[in-house]
Each structure stands twice: as structure tokens, then as C-alpha cells.
């Protein structure tokens, strides 16, 4: 097997894993999903899912990764359950597809950095022209893919760890500063209300509940083995439970403050009315440039450029983790050299991303023909990119449900506990153990399976299972 690097410290792992989790999912996707999912009710469900259903999955993934020191496919084989390799393969596939479109959006963010540097604040109103400029967005996406490949080539501890150490805190400070600015604007309070005061009638919507769970999985990078892969570089002395807690809290915290930044800005822009036209994938790209313009010519450029630069870096630490999954798979399983694996995978993934690249205005087919015929409220998508997004999110949920079943009933809780004990010697006598075991054996398998069905019916058939049951 090719030599594997390791993280240089526990903090290094936490930063890299948090870097994987924190990305476009928090700052670009979370706010518009909250908008589409009905505001505070969605936020509440999201928080609940992150801690109750996602946290156990995260611990399981990291434990399997550290135990086996393998990629997601090799991990199941190393544990002696070769017939579960399909689960790892599904993860590798999900990673490839996610990266293919994620890279396109990351390219937009990167492109916006240059627009801000030029002081082109009107780009917000020209978002659809921007995304339809295939040469431009294609080049940005290509640069982004190359940067991702370059970092992955250097190995996890080289690039990722070092970058995350500085960039994550900078991003947090930046968003917090924008929160302070946003809430002082006229009508901001309407946005805060929408974000924080639940409309309980929304809580029975399949789009709210299912959307919150999809968002939680995507944002925490769960269900596809990204954390099995990163876990494989973790030291035996590290405490998996506390690491997972830090990663979850960082990710949720950043998403939360991103929402707190966004909704007052939206309310300000619309004179206090939060409507759904403001949501959708254009949200930050349409709204924020105008906000930076309001700040003033010089500071607007500085803050705007810095914001999109940090957003690009946040996306970069996520794309790196996405690429690391298929790369470690071919490196471990087919003895391909890392450098070659990176180059081949990057080219393949970029190619798979072309339909997504064309799906915001350039190609009529990829832009308009991907409406699901029986799609429900949360499925009113026509773009290929959104379509691919929906499919992979279902894969993540399925992966999460299956991995808890695997850990509890196939690999067995005893072995999981043994792995967690390394680095957390009092685990066997702590209260965490029975709680985690309960989640992994019952709560996660049952709830994730049920909610997976809710999501599929809502997305692909327009049926709200929750309301049918109630
Ligand atoms: N969690 C990342 C984000 O929020 C995306 C991601 C998903 C990364 C799955 C890795 C695996 O942007």
C-alpha cells in the first residue's frame, strides 16, 4: 500500500474536518434552504438533526476510518465485511458527483472575488448573465479544480491543515462583522424574525423536515465516507467524541451566523418582505454585491473582495475533502501513484461537471428540462445542477442510514466502543456510551430510513408523507 500521511496534531484533524464541513453548504446553501424551507421552523429542525442524528453518524465514520486506515471502500474490506464495499463505493460515487457541481459553484464564488476587486457591484443584478458566460465561469471552475488537485497532491497534512488554521477564524470574524452591520440596517428586524421565530405550521411540511435533514448531512460532509477518509489519518490518541463535537459545533455555528447575516440583508433589500423569490441558488450572489456597494466604494471593494475570497477558500477546503475520497480509493485499492490518481480524477470530475456548468443559462436542455414531473414543493428545479444535487443528497442520507446499521449490527457496537476508547479511556463508564449506542442501534437507523422515504416521496413524487400520517 502506498504510504499515508497523517495529521500532525489533533487540532490539525479537527481543522481539516471542519474545513471539509464548512463550505458553500453553510454560507451559500444554508440561507436559501432556510428561505425555501420556511424560516425558523427549518432552522430548529436542522439544529435538532445535526446533534441527534448526524453526530452519531460522524463518530461512526471517524471511528471506522481510524480503525482501518483505509478509504471508504477498503475500510469495509479491512474490517472483514467485503460485501459491504458497495456502501463505500456509493460514497466514492457521491463524492465524485458532488464535486462535479460543487466545483462549478465554487467557481462562481471565485469569479465574484474578481468582480468585487474591479468594483463591479452591479454583478448582483447580472447574476444570470454571469453564470451563462461559459468561457468565464468555465475558466474559474477549471482554476478551482486545478487548485483542489494541487492541494490533494501534496497530501492532507501539507496543504489542508495549514490553510484551514488561518482561514477558518478569518471567515468567522468576517461573517460576524457582517452580522453586526446587517442588523443595524432598516427593516433588518423582519429578517431576524423570519429566521428565529418559528411558524409552527411549517413543521409538518415534508420540505421543511426533509430539507433540514438533507442540509444537515450535506453541511456536515456525512454519508459518503469523507470522514472515513479523514478519520484514517487520525492518531490513536485522539478523542473521537470530542473531535466530532468540535467539528459539529463549528459547522453549525458558522451556518447559523451566516443565516443571521443573510436574512437581515434580504429584509433590508426587500423593504421588510421576505418572499421566496429572494431564495434559490442566486441568493448570496444576487443580494450581497448590492450590500457591499452600500458600504461605500473603497470599503465595499475591500470587504466584498475579502468576503468572496474567504468563501472561495472555505469551498476549497471542502473540495479538497471531496477529491480526497476517490483519490485515496484508487491510491489504496489500485496502487496508483497519488499524483497520477489526482490528475486522472480531476479530469474525470471536471468533465462530469460540464452539464452542471451549462445548466445556468447556456444550454436550454440542461437549464430547463430537469423538472421532476411529479416533483413536490422542494423539487421545483429545472437545472441539471440542482437535479444532481437532489440525487446526491438522497445518496448521503442512504449512506448515513446504512452506516449506522453496519456499525450496530454487522461490525458490532463492542468494536465501535473499543475504537472510541482509544483516546477516550473513560468512554466505557461514561454516559456518552449508552446514549450513542441507542442512537446508532435504534434512533438513527429508524429515523434516517423514515426520513429518507419522506425526502424521496417529497422530491420525486410530490407527496408529503408527514401530513398523510398526521
Ligand atoms: N460540507 C461541505 C459544505 O458544506 C460539502 C461537502 C459535502 C463536503 C460532502 C464533503 C462531503 O460545503
Kindly describe this structure.
The chain is globular and about 60 Å long. The termini are far apart. 56% of the residues are buried. With 470 residues, the chain is an all-alpha fold. The protein is built from 20 helices and no strands. The longest helix is centred in the C-terminal third of the chain and has 38 residues, at 297-334. α12 (240-270) packs across α13. The chain has a single domain, classed as Hydantoin permease. The structure holds phenylalanine. Phenylalanine binds next to α1, α2, α10 and α14. Residues 20-21, 23-26, 98, 218-219, 221, 224, 226, 318, 321-322 line the site of phenylalanine (PHE).
The poorly predicted ranges are: none
* Amino-to-carboxy terminus distance: 53 Å
Could you give the count of β-strands? 0
CATH class bucket: Mainly Alpha
Bound small molecules, deduplicated: phenylalanine
What can be said about this structure in brief?
76% of the residues lie in helices and 0% in strands. The protein is mainly alpha-helical. Helix 5 packs across helix 15 and helix 10 packs across helix 19.
Amino acid at each position: 500500500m502506498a504510504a499515508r500521511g497523517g495529521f500532525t496534531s489533533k487540532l490539525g484533524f479537527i481543522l481539516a474536518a471542519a474545513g471539509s464541513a464548512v463550505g458553500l453548504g453553510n454560507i451559500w446553501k444554508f440561507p436559501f434552504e432556510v428561505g425555501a424551507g420556511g424560516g425558523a421552523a427549518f432552522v430548529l429542525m436542522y439544529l435538532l438533526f445535526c446533534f441527534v442524528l448526524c453526530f452519531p453518524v460522524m463518530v461512526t465514520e471517524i471511528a471506522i476510518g481510524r480503525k482501518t486506515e483505509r478509504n471508504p471502500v477498503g475500510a469495509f474490506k479491512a474490517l472483514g465485511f467485503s460485501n459491504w464495499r458497495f456502501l463505500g463505493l456509493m460514497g466514492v460515487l457521491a463524492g465524485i458527483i458532488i464535486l462535479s457541481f460543487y466545483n462549478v459553484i465554487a467557481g462562481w464564488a471565485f469569479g465574484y472575488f474578481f468582480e468585487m476587486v474591479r468594483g463591479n457591484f452591479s454583478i448582483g443584478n447580472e447574476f444570470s448573465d454571469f453564470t451563462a458566460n461559459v468561457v468565464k465561469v468555465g475558466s474559474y471552475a477549471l482554476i478551482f479544480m486545478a487548485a483542489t488537485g494541487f492541494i490533494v497532491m501534496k497530501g492532507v497534512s501539507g496543504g489542508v491543515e495549514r490553510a484551514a488554521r488561518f482561514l477558518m477564524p478569518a471567515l468567522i470574524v468576517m461573517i460576524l462583522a457582517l452580522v453586526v452591520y446587517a442588523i443595524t440596517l432598516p427593516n433588518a428586524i423582519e429578517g431576524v424574525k423570519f429566521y428565529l421565530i418559528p411558524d409552527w405550521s411549517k413543521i409538518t411540511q415534508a420540505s421543511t423536515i426533509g430539507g433540514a435533514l438533507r442540509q444537515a448531512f450535506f453541511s456536515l460532509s456525512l454519508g459518503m465516507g469523507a470522514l472515513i477518509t479523514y478519520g484514517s489519518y487520525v492518531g490513536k490518541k485522539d478523542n473521537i467524541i470530542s473531535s466530532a463535537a468540535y467539528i459539529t459545533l463549528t459547522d453549525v455555528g458558522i451556518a447559523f451566523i451566516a443565516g443571521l447575516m443573510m436574512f437581515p440583508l434580504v429584509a433590508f433589500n426587500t423593504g421588510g418582505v421576505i418572499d421566496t423569490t429572494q431564495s434559490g441558488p442566486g441568493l448570496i450572489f444576487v443580494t450581497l454585491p448590492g450590500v457591499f456597494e452600500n458600504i461605500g466604494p473603497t470599503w465595499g471593494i475591500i470587504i466584498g473582495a475579502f468576503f468572496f475570497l474567504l468563501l472561495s477558500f472555505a469551498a476549497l477546503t471542502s473540495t479538497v475533502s471531496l477529491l480526497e475520497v476517490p483519490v485515496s480509493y484508487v491510491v489504496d485499492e489500485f496502487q496508483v501513484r497519488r499524483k497520477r490518481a489526482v490528475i486522472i480524477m480531476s479530469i474525470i470530475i471536471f468533465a462530469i461537471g460540464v452539464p452542471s456548468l451549462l445548466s445556468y443559462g447556456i444550454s436550454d436542455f440542461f437549464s430547463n428540462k430537469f423538472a421532476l414531473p411529479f416533483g413536490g414543493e422542494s423539487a421545483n428545479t429545472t437545472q441539471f445542477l440542482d437535479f444532481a444535487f437532489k440525487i446526491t443528497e438522497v445518496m448521503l442520507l442512504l449512506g448515513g442510514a446504512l452506516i449506522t446499521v453496519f456499525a450496530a449490527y454487522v461490525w458490532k457496537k463492542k468494536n465501535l466502543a473499543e475504537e472510541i476508547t482509544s483516546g477516550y479511556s473513560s468512554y466505557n463508564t461514561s454516559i456518552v456510551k449508552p446514549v450513542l449506542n441507542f442512537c446508532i442501534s435504534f434512533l438513527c437507523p429508524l429515523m434516517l430510513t423514515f426520513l429518507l422515504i419522506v425526502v424521496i416521496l417529497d422530491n420525486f413524487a410530490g407527496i408529503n408523507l408527514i401530513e398523510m400520517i398526521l
